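May I ask for whichever protein you like with its backbone structure tokens?
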Amino acid sequence: MATSTISAPSSVRNVILTGFMGTGKSSVGRLLAHRLGFRYCDLDALIVEGEGVSINEIFARHGEPHFRALETEAVRSVSREERCVVSTGGGAVISPENRCLLRKAGVVVNLTATVEEVCRRLREETDRPLLKDDRSGERIAAMMAEREQFYADAELRIDTTGKSVEDVVAEITGYLEGR
């Protein structure tokens, strides 16, 4: 697999990665940004940096509504950027305002994976506040189903199940080159 930088079409201002937790947004985003010669921006990392505490701590201290408000502020900020690959948090697309801003900001790519794959990928992770009390496949499936209508709003959808990060990046760059 070639690792050289490719040129994104000039019509591609940003690439926005959406998807449920554990679908590969961060891993794919970092490599995709490198391949495109874009900057990489992780919304959750921006929030943590701005607040000075972890996502878990934000949820524990202030609750999900406060976190979602911070997330919308971060979306507003990155939507003004150019030549950036943005990895959103899994729930960022729940907000109609966020979906609108993200669509205007660039090409929205939704990464998916099977429930089983997400469970496998998240098995050892402890920084997922919405799964802290229930990490079951049933809980994950229910959350994925609740969000499906919002994820489906993407320009491109890629199932990452069983694929390497490189393969997913190649699918995205192939799409962008043909756009």
Observations:
- The chain has a mean pLDDT of 90.
